[in-house]
């Protein structure tokens, strides 16, 4: 659903590569819900299946079911996540289902062991508190001055810094 990125004024201009975190950590779970400060319709599921990462809108296109809680199955060489609410299946690569419904998928790349997702906003494994979301909107860097990336609530450039411990 999200299709642009913000400038310093918060205007949407186009998707950018968002550093999510180290693949070594992110590959420990089959799915992580990544929150967007743009709101729940822009949250993303980051799947790790069969050695590959996939990113898709987190809320089912049918009625908003939580796709991160869905089962993942492979049939005829196609990996699908099945919504836990009404069992619609979505291709992890294309977002297509056997119906007219389709999930937005996002490009994922690995660079030097880090996972990036092309998305309109920053993405975090923790819900953005309203004030912090505003700060990150214009200050996409952690207190160490590096690009903001958080895994399990810890800044990956300095794990002693918790997302929730930042003064806001
Ligand atoms: S909400 Fe996902 S299939 Fe209905």
UniProtKB/TrEMBL annotation:
Domain Rieske positions: 20-117
InterPro entries, alphabetized: Rieske_2Fe-2S, Rieske_2Fe-2S_sf, Sol_Rieske_ferrdox_dom
Keywords, alphabetical: 2Fe-2S, Iron, Iron-sulfur, Metal-binding
Signal peptide annotation: none
Keyword Secreted: no
Claim: Iron is one of the keywords in the record: yes
Gene Ontology molecular functions: 2 iron, 2 sulfur cluster binding; metal ion binding
Protein name: Rieske domain-containing protein
């Amino acid at each position: 659903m999200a299709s642009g990125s913000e400038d310093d004024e918060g205007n949407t201009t186009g998707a950018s590569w968002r550093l999510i975190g180290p693949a070594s950590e992110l590959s420990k779970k089959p799915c992580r819900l990544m929150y967007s400060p743009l709101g729940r319709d822009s949250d993303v599921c980051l799947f790790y299946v069969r050695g590959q990462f996939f990113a898709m809108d987190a809320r089912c296109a049918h009625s908003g079911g939580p796709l991160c809680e869905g089962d993942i199955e492979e049939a005829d060489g196609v990996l699908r996540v099945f919504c836990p609410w009404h069992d619609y299946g979505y291709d992890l690569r294309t977002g297509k289902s056997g119906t007219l419904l389709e999930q937005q998928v996002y490009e994922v790349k690995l660079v030097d062991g880090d996972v990036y997702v092309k998305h309109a906003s920053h993405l975090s494994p923790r819900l953005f508190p309203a004030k912090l979301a505003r700060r990150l909107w214009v200050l996409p860097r952690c207190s160490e001055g590096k690009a903001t990336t958080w895994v399990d609530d810890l800044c990956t450039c300095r794990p002693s810094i918790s997302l929730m411990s930042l003064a806001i």
